[in-house]
Structures are given as structure tokens and as C-alpha cells.
User: What shape does this take?
Amino acid sequence: MILTTEDARLSLRPWRIDDVASIVRHGNDRAVWANLTDAFPHPYTPADAAAWVAFARAPGDSLLFAVDWAGEAIGGAGVMGEGATGQFGYWLGQAYWGRGIGTKVAWALKAAALASGRFRRLEAPVFAWNTASIRVLEKVGFTRVAGAPRSVTKAGRLCDVVTYAAGF
Ligand SMILES: CC(C)(COP(=O)(O)OP(=O)(O)OC[C@H]1O[C@@H](n2cnc3c(N)ncnc32)[C@H](O)[C@@H]1OP(=O)(O)O)[C@@H](O)C(=O)NCCC(=O)NCCS
Assistant: This one.
């Protein structure tokens, strides 16, 4: 499945084996890692990227996409889960932040995930400091459903998380 956006340069498409080099280039960045759970490694090595691409090419009931900008994978976006509620997430290489790309990605992913019939509800847990991601979620119609102080360990530190949801 390929999800197009209003910008012809931007789409969400299946992961390809030849994405490894570009996602290492964009993902091996402490500023990206700092806003994701520890499931996203740092340093982010070619072996990490290859393992991710192998997993993401057989996603089961999850929807996992490379964020493609002008032919290059610059990040990832997906909904993971096997039941009615999917975990909604995304990241972009830092060079692409602040241009409205995250908002377009989240719109496309939310619409496709709810239209797919696989998920009735989407949940996005966000570190409380992540204003950009919170704004993205608010702009695409998620609402805050929970705040959980000191509930997730990041780099050995307990961090506050807020959860946004869309759907039923
Ligand atoms: C979160 C992320 C995807 C946002 O993507 P983006 O393309 O930079 O976001 P946009 O340009 O669409 O901006 C969305 C909104 O956030 C605001 N914003 C962007 N960066 C911001 C920042 N550093 N601080 C505060 N607001 C910010 C924008 O102004 C915009 O709001 P507005 O339209 O009201 O002005 C990107 O920063 C990223 O990949 N971060 C690292 C990984 C991550 O945090 N993933 C999400 C985990 S829950």
C-alpha cells in the first residue's frame, strides 16, 4: 500500500531493503532517539536498520511505512498492534523537521489506519516534553486521554508520558 499526500514529493510506502543506508543516515541521531522509546537504538547501526527493514517488510497486522521524500526514506511511520487498538508512531530525520512534513505524515497514516478496518482506535504515547509531536497529534484530530507521570524509563530515567487517541 502506498499513501500519497498533498505534496507530490512525500509519500508513505512499504520498506525496501535498499532503505538501510538512508535510515541509518537519518536515524543515527541522538535528537531523534531522545524522543522515542528505548526500542529505537542509539547508535543506530546498519545492522539495526537491516533488522528493522526485515521485520517491517512482513508486518502482519501492523501498518509500517517508510516516509519517502523525493525517493529517499527519511523516517518511519506506522501503527502496531494485533487488536482493535493500534499504537501510532512516526519519526523523521532532523533535517526534515519543522516543514509540516510530520503533520502530513500523521494525517495520511491516521486516515489509512482507520479506513483499513484493522484498528478502531489509535493511541499515541508521547514524552511530555515533545511539543512538536503533541502539536502534530492535535492538528490531525487526536485528543489527550491520559497523563502518566514517571511511567516510562528512557535512558535509565523515569519520564512523564501523555497519551493521545483517535477513533472510538
Ligand atoms: C515529531 C516530528 C515528527 C514532528 O514533525 P515536523 O515535521 O517537524 O512537524 P511539523 O513541521 O508538521 O509541525 C507540527 C507542529 O509542531 C510545531 N513544532 C514543530 N517543532 C516544534 C518545536 N521544536 N517546538 C514546538 N513546536 C514545534 C509546529 O510549529 C507545528 O505547529 P503549528 O502548525 O501550530 O505551528 C519530528 O519532530 C520528529 O521526527 N521528532 C523525533 C521523533 C519523534 O518525536 N517522534 C514522535 C514520537 S511520539
